[in-house]
Please model this.
Amino acid sequence: MNIKNSTCYLFILDVILTLIGIYLLNKKKNKKVFIFIILGLTFTCSISSNIKDTLVKKGQDIDYSDVIEYIDNSGSVYRTNNLYNNLNSINQVISNSYYTTSIYSSTSSANYKQFYNNDINNEFKYRSREILATTYNVLSNIYLGNKYVIAPFYNEIGYNKVIDKDLKMYQNDNVFFQLVMQHLIL
Model:
């Protein structure tokens, strides 16, 4: 049986059971049976639609060991802008001394969102306004304290290549210190 036929059968079963549930709710006033049918249909539809879903890989595809070593040895408290695999690495923390401006969360500060999106005019790469993704905006990177930029290519004023292997990292010593910026924004 192919997937189209099974989907068609599930849809027909869904319609029949929904109609039976509505009938029982209207005629017999049996809310428990109706709720049981709706929950069963929800569970069945969820399982059938997600059974063949391919999920995001659990492990890292990129070896960040050189970057981690470099940032850990610097002893500085600055942010890092990761432009590799942007959306998949948005909330990824690769070491204890890795700080970032990107976040995908509905709990981030409204003041920070206002500043990041409207005041400094970062681009919207994705449709969701909750995604504060990393940016190529050099003014934003300097102002937000992004001393390090991990990117395949980054040719912006003030940033010099410090790691030139499979993973490339650029550094700018003339960025604002992170703690000063947190106080000004928040």
Q: What stands out?
A: The longest helix spans residues 3-28. The mean pLDDT is 77.
